[in-house]
Automatic annotation (TrEMBL):
<protein>
    <submittedName>
        <fullName>L-2-hydroxyglutarate oxidase</fullName>
        <ecNumber>1.1.3.-</ecNumber>
    </submittedName>
</protein>
<keyword id="KW-0560">Oxidoreductase</keyword>
<comment type="similarity">
    <text>Belongs to the L2HGDH family.</text>
</comment>
<dbReference type="GO" id="GO:0016491">
    <property type="term" value="F:oxidoreductase activity"/>
</dbReference>
<feature type="domain" description="FAD dependent oxidoreductase">
    <location>
        <begin position="7"/>
        <end position="396"/>
    </location>
</feature>
<dbReference type="InterPro" id="IPR036188">
    <property type="entry name" value="FAD/NAD-bd_sf"/>
</dbReference>
<dbReference type="InterPro" id="IPR006076">
    <property type="entry name" value="FAD-dep_OxRdtase"/>
</dbReference>
<dbReference type="Pfam" id="PF01266">
    <property type="entry name" value="DAO"/>
</dbReference>
<keyword id="KW-0274">FAD</keyword>
<keyword id="KW-0285">Flavoprotein</keyword>
């Protein structure tokens, strides 16, 4: 019997977890991971805040909620088995205004439906028992929300793939995907000099997911619109004011959680991220501008419909991007002892936000099947948390489907 080859495009945490899962489930299968970068986990994975989400926010019964719960258990066990950092520092979601309290109550009920372990609603006087320097009217406390190092996890997944006989081919920008006469899939590099044949192909291209899926014959929607999230780092002398994670009550009309305080596994504390439209798919700086990307964004009707719905929020986020004082104004309501003078600008990440033509923000995981090709079209937060569960979900579908679809 000839050796089966399964290709995976994308060496972020979802792609690597998927490649690892396939190699574990189907020993002897040749698994090849392709990525245009020279290292793994360069983009969304490498710019992740490191939070292991417990499932507070997600609609009960959704793929997000199901895979998050499963993913946390798998990730915790994996980190402990491999000696990777995993710190259950806990999270507070804090209501600071009276109008946020009903939303906090709804969030608590949602967390209970999702069976978030240990989650409880706490009153004003209890907030400081959890976070002595935090302020608010009420909060939801998730004691088992954790932090980790997703780049280290992704690198460990890559080693697992190679240990199982798989291959990580970096520096391989995908230029063409086509069906061969024998039913296999040919993946050709952008310069035309490299080629692999795969019996099945999984696309986990993150920020490039819509473009790569189109190469395989998928439709245009949902479209990826890049949003840059900028962080501040709290100066070391003030980092001790935050024990774990302090979050605002999210606005259900908007997909981003709002600026929050996050302790990292190295002991530092970050504030952020905000959310502003990036001017390039990998636009980590305000000065990173891709005119072709801007033209594509401007030509997409979904962007204009989104802008009409959320222009006030967008304007506020842009002010915060330009001014540290404006950025920290909202954050100070949660930890009053940390202000603009106590932070410095840090790095930024770019989120692949999937958007429909009607301006709707695609919130759940989206996977399309195109014969022997499986395309992950949307893998938003908590994709890193859920990566091992997403990998199970994808591997099961890929291995059970016949190559012809």
């Amino acid at each position: 019997m000839s050796e089966e080859t399964i290709g995976v495009v994308g060496a972020g945490i979802v792609g690597l977890a998927t490649a690892r899962e396939i190699a574990v489930r189907r020993p002897g299968t040749r698994v090849v991971v392709l990525d245009k970068e020279r290292e793994v986990a360069v983009h969304q994975t490498g710019h992740n805040s490191g939070v292991v989400h417990a499932g507070i926010y997600y609609r009960p019964g959704s793929l997000k909620a199901t895979l998050c719960t499963r993913g946390v258990a798998l990730l915790r066990e994996y980190c402990r088995d491999r000696g990777l950092p995993y710190d259950e520092c806990g999270k507070l979601v804090v209501a600071v205004t009276p109008d946020e309290v009903p939303r906090l109550e709804a969030l608590h009920a949602n967390a209970l439906r999702n069976r978030v372990p240990g989650v409880r609603r706490i009153a004003r006087e209890e907030i400081r028992e959890v976070e002595p320097h935090a302020a608010g009217l009420a909060a939801v406390h998730s004691p088992h929300t954790a932090i980790t190092d997703y780049t280290a996890i992704a690198r460990s997944f890559a080693r697992d793939v190679e240990a199982a006989g798989g291959e990580i081919r970096l520096g391989f920008p995908v230029g063409r995907i086509r069906r061969a006469a024998d039913g296999s899939v040919e993946v050709i590099s952008r310069d035309g000099k490299s080629l692999i044949h795969a019996d099945r192909l999984v696309l986990c291209a993150g920020l490039q997911s819509d473009r790569v899926a189109r190469l395989a014959g998928d439709g245009a929607d949902p479209r990826i619109v890049p949003f840059r999230g900028e962080y501040m780092t709290v100066r070391p002398e003030k980092a001790g004011l935050v024990r774990g994670l302090v979050y605002p009550v999210p606005d259900p009309r908007y997909p981003f959680l709002g600026v929050h305080f996050t302790r990292r596994v190295d002991g530092s504390v970050e504030v952020g991220p905000n959310a502003v439209l990036a001017f390039a798919r990998e636009g980590y700086r305000l000065t990173d501008v891709d005119p072709r990307e801007l033209a594509r964004v401007a030509a997409f009707p979904g962007v204009w419909r989104l802008a009409r719905q959320h222009w006030r929020t967008g304007a506020r986020e842009m002010r915060g991007s330009l001014s540290v004082s404006a950025y920290m104004k909202a954050a100070e309501a949660y930890v009053p002892g940390i202000g603009a003078r106590d932070v410095t600008r840090a790095g930024a990440g770019v989120r692949a936000q999937a958007l429909g033509r009607d301006g709707s923000l695609v919130d759940d995981f989206v996977v399309h099947h195109l014969g022997p090709v499986t395309a992950v079209r949307n893998a938003p937060s908590p994709a890193a948390t859920s990566s091992m569960a997403i990998a199970e979900h994808i591997a099961e579908a890929v291995l059970e489907r016949s190559p012809s679809g």
